[in-house]
Automatic annotation (TrEMBL):
It comes from the Eukaryota. One of its GO terms (cellular component) is membrane. This is PGG domain-containing protein. The chain crosses the membrane at residues 223-243, 263-285, 305-331, 343-367. Residues 217-328 form the PGG domain. It holds the Pfam family PGG. Keywords: Membrane, Transmembrane, Transmembrane helix.
Amino acid sequence: MMQRGHKGDYLEEPLQKWKEMSSRVAHKLPLFGVEGIKSIRAQKLRHAQAVKLLQGICTELRNIKPDRVLGYRVHQAVIQAVKKGNVEFVTRMIKSIPELVWNGDINDRNIFSIAILNRQEKIFNLLHGLTNVKKMKVTSADDRFGNNMLHLAAMLAPSDQLDGISGAALQMQRELQWFKEVESIVPPICKDVLNSDGKKPSEVFSQQHANLVKEGEKWMKEIATSSSFVAALIVTIMFAAAFTIPGGNNDKGAPIFLDDPLFMVFIISDSISLFSATTSVLMFLGILTSQYAENKFLTRLPTKLIIGLSTLFICIAAMMIAFCAALAILLKKSSTKVVMIPIILLACVPVTLFALLQFPLLVNIFISTYGPGIFDRNIQRWY
């Protein structure tokens, strides 16, 4: 049998395996290592260099009067920045060449109209940093098709903007939020102005979002159908559990473990689960029988979905607590009570799975409906 001549030879193979494993981990988790720090530093350096370059360009543009070709190129660059939502580039360029605010593209649309059409809220929010006179001038402008800002807000958002929102109902809600926000800043007469096709903004909105309304209705009904089935099943289980209490009753009909604190935990959690499951069923039934008009997607339907999902989460959690309490009552004086801990831990699995699968959706719906929103009117005067 071959023998190793040096003591270090015994460590060579384990060390080699450790190095290989470390390299694989570092490759899979670059953000937590030196490479991640270098990447972040490189991004900051590139941003700083881009800012310096932009400052130099703006300084040169202030010192010279752009000719027709240069002015066209600058305007096209600003339009592309608006479509991408690059606020810093847009603001610095406009401060250098103020005429960029009023210049239109080939369709006579200013930068704020383009921002509305491309759903770039950060650029659109800059509108509130203008004076009232300038804001009125910007919001009253029409494009060459007779569309005002409200007509543009009524058009369907680009697919890349809608894809970032989960669920057709939330996409419809975001479209309504855009329409309502633009409607609040344009002159009242813009609501009834006809474009070149002879349509009002509300008519354009209904036509452009007809398919999205159908998809939103289908999405909400699918969630309501599957969730109401689970809630109805829990109602049946918890109602039966309330009358088949742990340990049974004595000769007088009173529960045997009535004086046990765990019995009160069982009764309370069973009642909470039953009531919340019933509420969840009613909410989802309301969703299934609701009128799916366009304006209902703004707050009414999302609120029903929030209540339904919240009460469903509560009833599942309370059901698991009731199960654990009943198990603890039955096994408290038994020699097999050691199995209580793993069973209670397993009871946490359904609650955890529901939290991981449905809780993010619930949070998104709540923030989208009752959160601060994507629009900011507290913009300081910048132009």
